[in-house]
Specification:
- By secondary structure, this protein is an alpha/beta fold.
- It contains six helices and eight strands; from the N terminus they run E-E-E-H-E-E-H-E-H-H-H-E-H-E.
- Strands 2-1-4-5 form a four-stranded antiparallel β-sheet, covered by helices on one side. Strands 3-8-7-6 form a four-stranded parallel β-sheet, sandwiched between helices.
- Strand 4 and strand 5 form a beta hairpin.
- The two termini are 24 Å apart.
Length: 199
């Protein structure tokens, strides 16, 4: 499903983000990429999402070379890869439901489709009944659940979670990991990126 073939990303002679990296992620796997800050974890993700171009090597998603795609095809790729970050990036003046719906609106989905999808993903992440609350009215763990729900709206093949527990206490962090395991069990490949070996 994901294949990095001898990928390097070098910004200059003093800044080598990743060097000759090869790995495969198969459908249905739950893979953790663990490393300290500055070790190149986020660069890997940016390369996969075609936000950065490798200095050398090739990156494939579903047998397609990500960096030989036309620019017009990149949004389609990104809809197959849900992303979750530690900084929630929620819109403060929109409710939980509106934040989730916004990801569908931007993609041009119809109102009936949005009304169908939003309750479905809020149930998956355990936020059913909280759709009318605003981000400031819910906990950090619940805000991260909103971000995960938003990442699931396009039924991605892969969910990438980049330090999803970085701003959470230990108990809430483990609840988020349990949620990611559940999402994996119902058929979505998960790639967890973290500096925390305990996680």
């Amino acid at each position: 499903m994901i294949y990095f073939d001898k990928v390097s990303k070098i910004y200059n002679h003093k800044s080598v983000a990743i060097d000759d990296v090869s790995f495969t992620v198969s459908p249905g796997e739950f893979v953790s990429i663990v490393g300290h800050s500055g070790s190149g974890k986020t660069t890997l993700l940016r390369l996969l999402l075609a936000e950065e171009t490798p200095t050398s090597g090739s990156i494939f998603f579903e047998s397609i070379n990500v960096h030989s795609m036309k620019k017009s095809e990149v949004p389609k790729l990104r809809r197959k890869i849900g992303t979750v970050f530690q900084d929630f990036k929620l819109l403060p003046k929109k409710t939980v439901g509106e934040n989730i719906a916004f990801a569908l609106e931007v993609a041009g989905e119809s109102r009936p489709r949005i009304r169908e999808v939003v309750p479905h993903v809020t149930r998956i992440v355990g936020l059913h009944g909280k759709e009318d609350r605003y981000p400031h009215q819910i906990s950090g763990g619940e805000r991260q659940r909103v971000v995960i729900a938003r990442a699931l709206v396009h039924r991605p093949k892969v969910l990438i979670a980049d330090e999803p527990t970085g701003n959470l206490d230990a108990i809430t962090a483990h609840e988020i990991i349990d949620l990611l395991k559940h999402i994996n069990e119902i058929g979505t490949t998960v790639v967890l990126v973290t500096h925390d070996r305990d996680i």
